[in-house]
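Quick one: co-fold with N-acetyl-beta-D-glucopyranosylamine.
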Amino acid sequence: MTISEPLDLRLPTPSCYADPERAGLDADAVFAGMTEHLFFTLGKLAPTASRHDLYMALSYAVRDRLMTRYLASLEAIRARPQKTVAYLSAEFLIGPQLNNNLLNLGIQQEAEEAVRRFGVESLQQILDVEEEPGLGNGGLGRLAACYMESLASLQVPATGYGIRYEFGIFDQLIRDGWQVEVTDKWLKGGWPWELPQPDEACFVGFGGRTESYTDDKGNYRSRWIPAEHAIGVPHDVPVLGYRVNTCDRLRLWRADATESFDFYAFNIGDYYGAVEEKVGSETLSKVLYPNDGTDEGRRLRLKQQHFFVSCSLQDMLRSLDQRGLAVENFADYWTVQLNDTHPAIAVAELMRLLIDDRHLTWEKAWEITTRSVAYTNHTLLPEALEKWDLDLFSNLLPRHLELIYEINSRFLQQVRLRFPGNDAIIRKLSIIDEDGGKAVRMAHLATIGAHHVNGVAALHSELVRTQLLPEFAALWPEKFTNVTNGVTPRRWVALANPPLSSLLEQHVGSDWISNMENLRKLEAHQNDSGFLEQWGNTKLTVKRKLSSYIHRHTGVLVDPASLFDVQVKRIHEYKRQHLNALQIITQYLRIKNGQADGMAPRTVIFGGKAAPGYYMAKLIIRFINGIAETVNADPDMDGRLRVVFLPNYTVKLGEQVYPGSDLSEQISTAGKEASGTGNMKFAMNGALTIGTLDGANVEIRDQVGEDNFFLFGQTVEEIAALKRSGYRPWEVIDSRPELSEAIHLIQTGHFSNGDADLFRPLIDNLSNSDPFFVMADFADYLRAQDAVSQAWSDRSQWNRMSVLNAARSGFFSSDRSIQEYCDHIWKVKPLKVDITCDVR
Ligand code: NBG
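Sure, here it is.
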């Protein structure tokens, strides 16, 4: 027996604790819990406690209250095995945890009262201290977090598997208008939400070679002899559902060295050499790759992917063993969702584990794999479709490459039958890309190994079927499906926007929090002028709060009564922040030229990070800041136009921004934004969208009604036609006086302190190639912005449109998305978790 095997002492271990200071949910109990943790866990006396100490104490007290639910949830699935969701994602952007757990437990008031007894003014002061783990880049990582929360809220047994990066997405500073990246140190003050489980560590191999042998039954076999190993140590984060007992688990792997020291090297005096291996393995979970959409094909990134996927699959197999379930039945107990291609190596790794370690036949292993794995595609951008150089791949994962060759050859056999004599199709569909340098196409591996492939919005899924993978779709039409993204209304409305939540509660009750369709009841009040005024005032309250945040963080004073026009998301040319920026210049010129009659006073707010190596995106940030500086310093703009770039956009900042917005900018080039999820958060908080027919915008417009949405821009088909006919952006500029005037002003250095060269690369790009059709959509965008100004002038009408946006946003709850995954892809059912003692 090893020290990590469970003992069987038959002690009367309670399965839950009902002691008030550990489990009680009233203010006295929470206060007692905090006091105890200050003393015993943090070693502090209350009078000397800092705000951070109180944050830690409250978090530990809340975590205590999760434990009974968490352990009961684990116990339920152990005692009554049923299919569990394994959500594999290289990113989980979970945001601050404390307030979400308070909300889902239903003890925000009680916590407020408890912290006040320590002499703190408000719970908010404690919440402000929390550092969020930035374990993701943007929408993809945040989606994974919303999905975990909905899984728990719908009482579905689930584990999210990912990586515990020591450094998450960088912190963004703005210096002289430029983005500067600094490392994010989310662990520096200690992070109270994780439970390390070193006893459940897993080994992962890399490199080395394969060798063949004949087993004792005379079968020809292959095995992998890796050159090096790392250990994955699970760090578990409880994910509590909303007002239910279910508390699911996020299991994040941290890499450790197998041996902290190589004693041989140490003995011969090579101290630094001895530490090298340790340092080498630990870099595996050191840092998140800060690229969004573009993949760099770096060796360490492939290592990270294999590391977390291997640990996770081993963990799933082990859980079958522990429950005495046969490995042959893997697919009855685990459904494995690949969040984009980052975990796609799972297809080969599961085959390897089943064949090499568990000695199943190829056929059985393939049946298990294809019955359990499903794949979600999140992008059509060619530069974001992961490909791994063949040499790098075979060097790092030689056994996996052998298996991939076999998967490929069996697959291509099927293709030959279906498309006889068509070699072009073989080349196109092969997992191995033979054009140019040979490479492994991860999207093909995922598509072949999965029982379902889905896109993330109706339009996007259609494009996956017709443009990205048409031959695969012809081969397996039933494999391809759509699940439109969603976001959790708990975090994005109930927690982020308390004034709106109480207004909603007053008029439609509080059921909407777990059944968003109930917000439809608001429609009954759309012509009630008293209600519309209340609605407007609620928005104003939140905008005041955002205004003071803006002032504190940028020094810019903004008028909460102006139209808050907001674009927050990663900075990318396809998202077209520069289109918005150009539009601001036009508004600026109109004011300067005395042609601004009817223009709504606006505060245009931007936020978002650019990938550190993405020059054009960083120049766009500089451009926005240049415009902001000129506009905000010009007295003619007072009361009419303000421009703000909010530094360091995070989940936490998003919670301030969405509620305080009037207008949501969703202006990507049609066909480029797979879904978007910010667009949904805005709508739920009553912002109106100005947007193109792209991603989930299409469905948002369908839901809220075309009268309540500002549509502009070319469609996917129109853009394709424009491309075919030869797009000449310079001609568009020449034909539009307002556009050429704006461009000219930039070229004179008006927004760059006279430096005429600063923005030249941006302007050259827009005038010569304009790959994202900014010029093509400019005039129509301006027209739609004028319609926005017009609508703003009738405030009660605006408020009505705002109400209808919120009222009809129920479809975009992640509860709906998860229900669809459960019913159509995963085939999993909820599992009710009972708690045997009184924890109220
Ligand atoms: C992103 C898309 C977004 C989408 C999120 C979540 C990647 C690769 N894709 O449009 O760009 O909302 O995924 O699905 O990050």
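If it helps, The chain has a mean pLDDT of 95.
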